[in-house]
């Protein structure tokens, strides 16, 4: 786990205007910056970025967060990757739990990673330049219906014939980074003597593969003729792991949001050709089966994922592997479908033969995950006999066990039960499903603290907006919060402790990021703070001191009333009465002194 102190320090060093400005065109508007929201379609800007609060907020769709949250939502990065991305830009090294690597060595590793990235960028520029003069490659792309505009959008290039063309790009052709990045291959004689280095890619259309930051991390190369292999990919490198990356995701992000779904295809050319023909929301796996990491990355971008496969046996096998990768991440608010085209077509050829509207209809009619799963486990078995029904259940068991308890899993269980002449509860017991959902049960009682109101709400809002105020709250002040009740007092104590942990320089953005990571309890308050003008810290500090003093006064008055109503003797009352009145006098003197100093 990354320490909260590091997150706070990082958010104090980065400027959210610079972070968001890399992706959204911002214009100054008063104290804030304005732009078109990248998370929903709009014609007039309702997206604001506050440099003082280091927070963004959209008044249209309600999206809001810190620099870290923006990278997660916009780029589809995980939390750790977003932190590392921001840290790298400001020269910070992210500490990791159980990380024994010294800071100097980690910095050296980051420098090496940057050198690999630079090498890929230079190679990409070279290949793009070579395409302009490659008549054969241009003719091939035109024959596939691609324009120069779409080729430029995806950065397509060409690797010419020859064994060492990259020598003209890299003065030190023998550099280690060229081999580590997969741009060249070192061939050693059988006796281990001579080593010959040559370019990995030759006479191929080059498809740059980018990460979520838009950096080139690998290449896919397609031959122009009928040579083998038809597609040649970069090897696994420190930059590139094909089980994690998706071709075209960087280019498709906004189109995915606009369309409301992502279309997952099997090849580079499918992605580029579909973008050409009006389907820019397509991505592709990189010559490997779909993995759970792919699914996680896709579901960060959208709630609807549609896999497109050829209708032949190979396509069915690929679809089955995609189904298995999806099951751990299936939830009731996500939609996953499977589109199977006729055996003679891939998405590119289908659109050309039948038109965009026909393909759009195919997408609309794609098979839901639940239907595909039941078809997979039941399709080849005779459900008219006990053996066939038992085999269908046998095949279904590992798939259902991979799913988390959800309404969708219950629906699939019910469908399987109907097909195999069983009851849903029998299947859940037989399959040993975690947390069965078919068995009727009472809803658990609602838990959670009451929503803060009145004076407590004001204190909470000010503590969230100005975390350093928590440093002014001592044990006596914490004890006075019992006046609100046990649960509100517990909430305030936890909030104060969290604010104090950030120190004197703790900012709203860092505190909001921390609170959001703990749950949604403060989301509405954070959203309200973002919408309002920045409050004056010193004025709020004075108000908080007065508010806590008033709480203490009210608590003492309440105790006095309880004391007199307790039926105690005058001697028993007298000792505590004098203590209470003394504390009241002290509070009044503090108030008068504070008023005199204003």
UniProtKB/TrEMBL annotation:
<keyword id="KW-0862">Zinc</keyword>
<dbReference type="Pfam" id="PF01807">
    <property type="entry name" value="Zn_ribbon_DnaG"/>
</dbReference>
<feature type="zinc finger region" description="CHC2-type">
    <location>
        <begin position="37"/>
        <end position="61"/>
    </location>
</feature>
<dbReference type="InterPro" id="IPR037068">
    <property type="entry name" value="DNA_primase_core_N_sf"/>
</dbReference>
<keyword id="KW-0808">Transferase</keyword>
<dbReference type="GO" id="GO:0000428">
    <property type="term" value="C:DNA-directed RNA polymerase complex"/>
</dbReference>
<dbReference type="InterPro" id="IPR006171">
    <property type="entry name" value="TOPRIM_dom"/>
</dbReference>
<keyword id="KW-0460">Magnesium</keyword>
<dbReference type="GO" id="GO:0005737">
    <property type="term" value="C:cytoplasm"/>
</dbReference>
<dbReference type="Pfam" id="PF13155">
    <property type="entry name" value="Toprim_2"/>
</dbReference>
<keyword id="KW-0548">Nucleotidyltransferase</keyword>
<feature type="domain" description="Toprim">
    <location>
        <begin position="260"/>
        <end position="342"/>
    </location>
</feature>
<keyword id="KW-0639">Primosome</keyword>
<protein>
    <recommendedName>
        <fullName>DNA primase</fullName>
        <ecNumber>2.7.7.101</ecNumber>
    </recommendedName>
</protein>
<dbReference type="Pfam" id="PF08275">
    <property type="entry name" value="DNAG_N"/>
</dbReference>
<comment type="function">
    <text>RNA polymerase that catalyzes the synthesis of short RNA molecules used as primers for DNA polymerase during DNA replication.</text>
</comment>
<dbReference type="InterPro" id="IPR030846">
    <property type="entry name" value="DnaG_bac"/>
</dbReference>
<comment type="subunit">
    <text>Monomer. Interacts with DnaB.</text>
</comment>
<keyword id="KW-0240">DNA-directed RNA polymerase</keyword>
<keyword id="KW-0238">DNA-binding</keyword>
<dbReference type="GO" id="GO:0003677">
    <property type="term" value="F:DNA binding"/>
</dbReference>
<dbReference type="GO" id="GO:0006269">
    <property type="term" value="P:DNA replication, synthesis of primer"/>
</dbReference>
<comment type="similarity">
    <text>Belongs to the DnaG primase family.</text>
</comment>
<dbReference type="InterPro" id="IPR013264">
    <property type="entry name" value="DNAG_N"/>
</dbReference>
<keyword id="KW-0863">Zinc-finger</keyword>
<dbReference type="InterPro" id="IPR002694">
    <property type="entry name" value="Znf_CHC2"/>
</dbReference>
<dbReference type="InterPro" id="IPR034151">
    <property type="entry name" value="TOPRIM_DnaG_bac"/>
</dbReference>
<dbReference type="GO" id="GO:0008270">
    <property type="term" value="F:zinc ion binding"/>
</dbReference>
<dbReference type="GO" id="GO:0003899">
    <property type="term" value="F:DNA-directed RNA polymerase activity"/>
</dbReference>
<dbReference type="InterPro" id="IPR006295">
    <property type="entry name" value="DNA_primase_DnaG"/>
</dbReference>
<keyword id="KW-0235">DNA replication</keyword>
<dbReference type="InterPro" id="IPR036977">
    <property type="entry name" value="DNA_primase_Znf_CHC2"/>
</dbReference>
<keyword id="KW-0804">Transcription</keyword>
<keyword id="KW-0479">Metal-binding</keyword>
<dbReference type="Pfam" id="PF10410">
    <property type="entry name" value="DnaB_bind"/>
</dbReference>
<dbReference type="InterPro" id="IPR019475">
    <property type="entry name" value="DNA_primase_DnaB-bd"/>
</dbReference>
<dbReference type="GO" id="GO:1990077">
    <property type="term" value="C:primosome complex"/>
</dbReference>
<dbReference type="InterPro" id="IPR050219">
    <property type="entry name" value="DnaG_primase"/>
</dbReference>
């Amino acid at each position: 786990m990354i320490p909260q102190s590091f997150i706070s320090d990082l958010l104090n060093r980065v400027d959210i205007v610079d972070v968001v400005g890399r992706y959204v065109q911002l214009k100054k508007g008063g104290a804030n910056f304005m732009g078109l929201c990248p998370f929903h379609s709009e014609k007039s800007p309702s997206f604001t970025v506050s440099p003082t609060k280091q927070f963004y907020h959209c008044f249209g769709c309600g999206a809001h967060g810190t620099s870290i949250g923006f990278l997660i939502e916009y780029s589809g990065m995980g939390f750790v990757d977003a932190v590392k991305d921001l840290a790298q830009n400001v020269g910070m090294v992210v500490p990791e739990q159980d990380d024994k690597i010294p800071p100097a060595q980690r910095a050296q590793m980051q420098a090496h990673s940057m050198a690999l990235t630079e090498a890929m960028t230079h190679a990409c520029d070279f290949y793009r330049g070579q395409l302009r003069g490659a008549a054969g490659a241009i003719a091939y792309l035109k024959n596939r219906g691609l324009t120069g505009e779409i080729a430029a959008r995806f950065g397509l290039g060409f690797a010419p014939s020859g064994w060492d063309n990259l020598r003209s790009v890299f003065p030190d052709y023998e550099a280690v980074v060229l081999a580590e990045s997969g741009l060249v291959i070192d061939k050693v004689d059988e006796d281990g003597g001579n080593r010959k280095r040559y370019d990995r890619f030759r006479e191929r259309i080059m498809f740059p593969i980018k990460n979520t930051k838009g950096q080139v991390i690998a290449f896919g190369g397609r031959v122009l003729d009928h040579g083998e292999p038809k597609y040649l990919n970069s090897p696994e490198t420190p930059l590139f792991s094909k089980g994690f990356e998706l071709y075209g995701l960087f280019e498709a992000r906004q189109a995915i949001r606009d369309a409301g779904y992502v279309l997952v295809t099997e090849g580079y050319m499918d992605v580029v050709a579909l973008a050409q023909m009006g389907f820019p929301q397509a991505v592709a796996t990189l010559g490997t089966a779909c993995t759970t990491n792919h699914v996680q990355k896709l579901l960060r971008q959208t709630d609807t994922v549609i896999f497109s496969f050829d209708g032949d046996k190979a396509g069915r096998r690929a679809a089955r592997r995609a189904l298995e990768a999806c099951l751990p991440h299936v939830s009731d608010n996500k939609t996953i479908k499977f589109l199977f085209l006729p055996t003679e077509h891939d998405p590119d050829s289908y659109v050309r033969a039948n038109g965009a509207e026909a393909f759009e209809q195919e997408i609309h009619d794609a098979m839901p995950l639940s239907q595909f799963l039941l078809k997979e486990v039941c399709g080849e078995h005779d459900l008219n006999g006990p053996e066939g029904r038992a085999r269908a259940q046998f095949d279904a068991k590992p798939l259902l066990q991979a799913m988390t308890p959800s309404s969708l899993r219950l629906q699939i269980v019910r469908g399987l039960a109907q097909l195999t002449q069983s009851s849903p509860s029998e299947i859940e017991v037989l399959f040993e499903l975690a947390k069965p959902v078919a068995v009727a049960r009472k809803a658990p009682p609602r838990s959670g603290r009451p929503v803060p109101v009145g004076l407590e709400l004001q204190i909470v809002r000010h503590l969230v907006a100005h975390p350093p105020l928590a440093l002014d709250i001592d044990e006596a002040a914490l004890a006075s919060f019992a006046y609100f009740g046990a649960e509100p007092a517990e909430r305030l104590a936890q909030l104060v402790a969290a604010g104090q942990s950030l120190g004197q320089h703790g900012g709203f953005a860092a505190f909001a990021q921390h609170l959001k990571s703990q749950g949604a309890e403060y989301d509405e308050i954070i959203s309200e703070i973002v919408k309002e003008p920045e409050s004056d810290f010193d004025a709020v500090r004075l108000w908080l001191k007065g508010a806590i003093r008033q709480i203490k006064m009210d608590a003492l008055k309440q105790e006095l009333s309880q004391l007199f109503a307790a039926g105690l003797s005058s001697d028993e009352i007298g000792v505590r009465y004098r203590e209470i009145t003394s504390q009241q006098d002290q509070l009044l003197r503090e108030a008068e002194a504070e008023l005199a100093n204003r």
